[in-house]
Amino acid sequence: MNKIVSIAFFEIKKNVRDIKMLLLLVVTPIITIFILGKSLDAFLTMESMPTPLVGYVNHDEGNLSDSFDSFIKSNEIKDIIEILEYETQEEAAVALEKGNVNCIIFINNNFSKLLTDGN
Fold first, then answer.
1. Backbone angles phi, psi at 53, to 5 degrees
2. Where are the alpha helices (DSSP H) in the chain?
């Protein structure tokens, strides 16, 4: 154990004396982190992502679907996704097939009743 500690101490002492090596050991990781951070910056920002188009069909007249309507039409959600409302599920499915929307949210006519019943 003493040999390992003395060898490690000797290597540290040698690297501290050698200024070029010390700079490489300290500066290289900092530069690498900076370069990787700048190169991945464009992939991690929300600006580069297009807003998804969502088809929305609501046939329910209950309180829970009204709450969901107010949630999905709130300003916070409008900043993230764009909602296109449709009258029927078939219209939304056709829009999905044509590529006009990326996904569909469908709420059937007994949604609030099923949720309040625990189903």
1. -95, 125
2. 2-17, 19-44, 63-72, 75-80, 89-98, 111-117
Contact status, residue 101 vs residue 95, Cβ threshold 8 Å = yes
Our CA angle for 69, 73, 43, nearest 5°, is: 125
User: Are the C-beta atoms of 56 and 86 separated by less than 8 Å?
Assistant: yes
DSSP summary character for residue 102: S
Q: What angle do CA 63, 68, 70 make, to 5 degrees?
A: 95
Instruction: Give per-10-residue mean pLDDT for the chain (119 aa).
Output: 88 79 84 86 67 86 81 85 88 89 86 76
Three-state DSSP class for 57? strand
Q: How far apart are CA 24 and CA 27, in angstroms?
A: 5
Tokens of residue 40, six digits: 């991945």
pLDDT of residue 81: 87
